[in-house]
Amino acid sequence: MATATALAHPNIAFIKYWGNRDQHLRLPANGSISMNLAGLTTTTEVSFSDELPGDMVELNGRLLAGPELQRVSDFLDCVRRMAGVFKPAQVRSENNFPTGAGIASSAAAFAALSLAASTALGLDLGELELSRLARRGSGSASRSIPTGFVEWHAGDDDQSSYAVSIAPPEHWDLVDLIAVVEAGHKSVGSTAGHALADTSPLQPARVADAPRRLEICRSAIHARDFDRLAAIIELDSNLMHAVMMTSNPPLMYWEPATLRIIKEVPAWRKSGLPACFTLDAGPNVHVLCPSSAADEVRRRLSELPGVQQILQAAPGGPARLVTREG
Ligand code: DP6
Questions:
Q1: pLDDT digits (tens, 9 = 90+) for 151-172
Q2: Distance between CA atoms of residues 316 and 320, nearest Å
Q3: 32 lines ligand 1 (CB under 6 A)
Q4: Mean pLDDT over all residues of the chain?
Q5: CA of 159: how far to CAs of 16, 74, 133, in Å?
Q6: Which stretches of 102-247 are assigned E, i.e. beta strand?
Q7: Is pLDDT above 70 for 326?
Q8: Same domain, yes or no, for 129 and 250?
Q9: pLDDT digits over 197-229, tens only?
């Protein structure tokens, strides 16, 4: 039996991926930039064997069925076709962070699965090929393959759409404080959300302006310019949520506690505390700050109404192999 285990970190997007030019291949409408989240990990073990009756996938001890299983099986088919091996797989995946807490768990999941499954099938893929493969499972997973601060080049076909590291984790001592205001599963997941993006009259403007935002974000990271980063991250998050709110049907992810935080954080910054916010497809708020400000930002967040829990992560490393057998 060919087995491999890999781990990957989730990532938080500074410039967001929202909407696909090709939904099936997950070719995004625009490029995106993110930071991997150290300390938060998905560890995935994959074994391929003819003895198995079919693909079996366990996530945090829960056996997947129906569309959830189908999504993983379809992805495994991509890997099996690449390897020319058509055996069923047993997949065991564990997150050390709460699923559905506003942390894109599919990113870490498909990044770890890409590395474990391709290794178990004897493929020795480079980082670029792995990123491209992970993209097929979940777009944001392409960004959890390389290390640190990462840019996903939108590209215009399967070959040209992949992510690369733009700075290692130690480049910038930033911290992501994740204010959890609702720990349950989100009502409309990202995959369904991407399909609605084009129904918003604001999406073309968001996409057309993306190269400018990417350039500002990339240069702010390179220069470690927090104020410049803060302004572009908040603009980008607001643009994505404007698209979501004006889609048909509209997607409204904010809760009252969300709004409270996203009004407070820029006010803190104005009064000298470096912090900025960004949201994914959910109500929880990621608050980024230099590590020197983390204790104070954390203290202030914990005093806000509706904040149930605060998770903390520094810039994280790449997806990596844990063991290999068989
Ligand atoms: C709002 O990568 O989760 O987090 O490709 O359908 O799995 P699928 O979508 P996913 O979308 C992420 C959306 C986002 C923004 C981002 O991470 O860039």
A1: 999 999 999 999 999 999 999 9
A2: 12
A3: yes
A4: 95
A5: 21, 19, 10
A6: 149-153, 162-167, 174-180
A7: no
A8: no
A9: 999 999 999 999 999 999 999 999 999 999 999
Q: What is the pTM of this model?
A: 0.97
List C-alpha distances in Å: 303 to 177, 204, 296, 308.
14, 39, 11, 10
With a 6 Å cutoff on the Cβ, whether 243 touches ligand 1 is no
Q: Which two structure tokens, joined as six digits, stand for 253?
A: 């992810």
Regarding whether 95 and 238 lie in a shared domain, the answer is no
Give the ranges where 28-167 is alpha helix by DSSP (H).
66-83, 105-120, 127-137
118 lines ligand 1 (CB under 6 A): no
Token couple for 297: 């930002």
**What residue owns the CA closest to ligand 1's atom 1?**
280
Q: How far is the CA of 141 from the centre of ligand 1 (A)?
A: 8
Q: Determine the atom of ligand 1 nearest the C-alpha atom of 107.
A: 2
- Same domain? 196 vs 226: yes
At 58 the three-state DSSP class reads: strand
- pLDDT at position 182 is 86
Mean pLDDT of 119-137: 97
- Contact between 112 and 93 under an 8 Å Cβ cutoff? The reply is yes
- Domain-embedded: residue 236: yes
Contact of 116 with 8, CB cutoff 8 Å: no
Which structure tokens are listed for 58?
């366990």
pLDDT of residue 170: 98
| Domain extent for 300 | 172-313
Q: How confident is the model at residue 301 (pLDDT cuts 50, 70, 90)?
A: very high
